[in-house]
Structure formats: structure tokens, C-alpha cells
Amino acid sequence: MLNKVPGVTLIFWVIKIMSTTVGETGADYLAVHVGLGATVTGLLMASFLIVALIAQLRMQRYIPWIYWLTVVLVSVVGTQITDALTDRLEISLYVSTAVFALILAAIFAVWYAVERTLSIQTIVTTRRELFYWAAILSTFALGTAAGDLATEALGLGFNVGVVAFAALIASIAAAYALGTNAVLTFWLAYILTRPLGASFGDLLSQAREYGGLGFGTIHTSLVFLAVIVALVAWISFEDGRTHKAAAYLGE
What we know:
Elements: H1 10-33, H2 37-58, H3 64-88, H4 93-115, H5 126-153, H6 157-177, H7 182-205, H8 217-248
């Protein structure tokens, strides 16, 4: 197989942050405003994720729309896992954050022990891809718990949360520019984009009396989905041109 993961570019991070925002607002919209409830929404999104993940695993190379559809669905499901633990089982955000951090650490430990690398530039076997998606789902669940812990339990609020997480990501980018390990900085930034996107989504969608801007979950979700679709369509077009050129040149 060719590498199944896109290159880490500015567009990659933009779509990643927007997908986390959609995960936060989309799950709330389906469960509350559509009236499906948390259980039905969770089962529905988990089913969609399984179908998308199977399609992703069957591909022999990176297909932009399949990959990013899977990421969006992972975002929704990761959000719902944390919300179910917090809202329905009343598990403390301190506990869920710690547990998800340990789960992610365990996945990374086993992944590295088996493959001797955590680089996303070498996702060229099905086994490595399974490790990758297990880690991605854990980062979304961990990011949701950590973001809720910071903005709700610790009382930072949406505004301060956005600034704080953006500042942390900026510091990681600076560390990368100064020569810090690329794999380490990538995964740290990937984890932190989840609470950044969630805080940003809550800031846009929540009512003004709760500290938000009051745009609502449906409008926020639709706008961000539209941007994601437009960017993925453009990436797919460029990807198609690249492969046609490579085929023409006999590569």
C-alpha cells in the first residue's frame, strides 16, 4: 500500500480543527435538537463510522474524501463517548481525562513496540493503520474530556479556553521549528486541536447567557461542514491531477 494518511500541511490542520468543531456541535444537534437522544445518536454515528472505517481500510492509498469522512465521524463518536461517561454515568472529568490519557499512552506503547515507529508518514500496512485509527479515536475522546475539564470543571470558559489551547499549540509549533522531534510534536498538537475545536465550536454555538456567541449548533455545523467539503473537494481535485500526471509519466 501507499501511505494512507495525508501530508501534514496547513490545510490538514484547518480541516482537523473544523472536524473537531463539527464533532462537538453535530453531536449536540442530533441528540438534542433533532431529538434522537444520546443513545440513538451514538449507535447511528458508530454504525456510520464502522462503514467509513471499513471503506478506508479497503483502499490501497490515501483517498481524501474517505479519509476525512472517517475523521469527522471519529470526532463525533469520540465526543459521544466522553459525553456518555460524563452525563450518563456521572464519571468525573478528572477521571475520564486520566483514563483516556492512559489508554492513548498504552496504544502508543504497543504500536511502537510492534512497529518501532509512530510516524504517520509510514502508514503503509493494515496493522499500522489500525494502530493509527485507534490512536485517533483516543485523541478525540481525550481531547473532549480535557477540553471540558478546562472550560467547565476548571471554569476557564469558552473564550479563555480557545486562547489557552491556541497558545499551547503555538508553543508546540515553535518547539517543532526549533528542532523538537516531529512525531512527538505532531501527536501533541493533534491531541490539543480537539479541545481547541470543541471550545471554538461551543463559543460559536452556545447561547450568550452561557458565554457563547449564540449562532446555534445547526448553523455552526453546516458552515464548518461546507468549508470541510470545499477543502476536501479541492484536495481531491489536486490529488487526481497528481496521479494522472504520474500515470502519464509512467511512475
